[in-house]
Write a structure and sequence with these properties.
This protein is of the alpha+beta class and 167 residues long. It has a single domain (3-160), classed as Gcn5-related N-acetyltransferase (GNAT) (Aminopeptidase). Helices cover 34% and strands 22% of the residues. It has five helices and five strands. Strands 1-2-3-4-5 form a five-stranded mixed beta sheet. A hairpin with a 4-residue loop joins strand 3 (64-75) and strand 4 (80-90). It is an enzyme of class 2 (transferase).
Length: 167
């Protein structure tokens, strides 16, 4: 029997392995700096900031065959929280079995139950299989919006400057 459930600490190594697999799929195989210890702390430490759901399926040869990692965001316009899906991954050998849809449905159910305004995520523009899948469940792209990121040297340089206000 397949089961979507909240991740537990013993799932962390399998989740991290799938994060590495996702990075390979997204053509960034060396970009993952995360470790088992870091992921465990962020999921289950004193101040967890992320959440994860997993797909259990021991008959598929792997105890966990997919995951959704997410965190809360806030809409100033809606005046309520939302879910930001950071990663959704299903192992290639079991794709097409409805596991990705089940993970997304679990997040949608959480959002509805808690009165959140939305579930949102980003997808690479070349990832047509995922784009088509998301459209098939009723998700729509955010036309007119671009994702921006400040990281690495740019973040270090900008963050190191004083916060004074110039009149």
């Amino acid at each position: 029997m397949n089961l979507i459930r909240t991740a537990v600490p013993s799932d962390v190594p399998a989740i991290l392995a799938m994060i590495h697999d996702l990075a390979v799929y997204e053509k960034e195989p060396d970009a993952v700096k995360n470790t088992v210890e870091m992921l465990h702390e962020n999921l289950f430490g004193e101040n967890p900031g992320i959440y994860a759901h997993v797909v259990d399926n021991p008959t598929a040869g792997e105890p966990i065959i997919g995951f959704a990692l997410w965190f809360l965001n806030y809409s100033t316009w809606e005046g309520t929280m939302g879910i930001y899906l950071e990663d959704l991954y299903v192992r290639p050998q079991v794709r097409g079995g409805g596991y990705g849809k089940a993970l997304l449905r679990a997040l949608a159910q959480i959002a509805v139950e808690r009165g959140y305004a939305r579930v949102e995520w980003s997808v690479l523009d070349w990832n047509e299989p995922s784009i088509n899948f998301y459209k098939s469940i009723g998700a729509a792209p955010m036309d007119g919006w671009h994702v921006f990121r400040l990281d690495g040297a740019g973040l270090g340089s900008f963050g190191a400057t004083s916060v004074g206000v110039n009149a």
